[in-house]
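Page 47, continued from p. 46.
Same chain as before, 259 aa.
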Amino acid sequence: MRPLSDWPLERRRAVRGLFTDIDDTLTTEGVLTREAEAALGALRDAGITVVAITGRPMGWSQPFVRQWPVAAIVPENGAMALLPDGRQWFVQDEAVRRANAERLAVVARRVLADVPGACLARDSAGRVTDIAVDHSEFAHLPPERIEQVVALMREAGMVATVSSIHINGWFGEHDKWRGAVWIARELLGIDLGADLDRWAYVGDSTNDQVMFERFDNSVGVANIARFLPQLTHRPRYVTRGERGAGFAEVAEALLAARD
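Result:
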């Protein structure tokens, strides 16, 4: 990883859109700071589209998509999209979601029974397409227990990822990258894979690897340092500041290139 100051001017100037993780990337201690909110607003005013893509659930994300200056929030790791005007789009149809809900409940019960100290995330009531086990938000699981949860999920045929706060598991082929491609096509009418030099990504943890792998314009906020030993794919650049302050640095770098 290189410092953000090494991000070439011509590459920053070409960026017209930004995908960002939420927890510990856009937010600080679970809150969108004034600094980060101002950065979102400045990007929007400059014509840079911002889409938040997160492991947080639909229910948690609904108020924020109306309050924050973003074009959309893609929650539950690419399973759906929420728009500021109230529209909701899903990758899986209702019948598939209903069938998967029963399978998710079975896996959740097994995790709680087999992994000492495991508990579901407090935002679980708002989840539609996945389950989340808390490892760092309100509870603590040591690395070996996190690995045990991931193994149980994958044994059940689920996709499992670890964010800065939760272990998320779901049935389906979607993930953050496929969700980004999908929302770019459905909302903006663009082929993201063919337009990557005009987009950037900001993240902070292992569940952002699929995005770091794809985006040349990828940035990690400084608190990604805790996950570096687990990262196969790292961001190209890293900020000085952590969390929302780091996101504000990214916004400043993009806006300065336009000036």
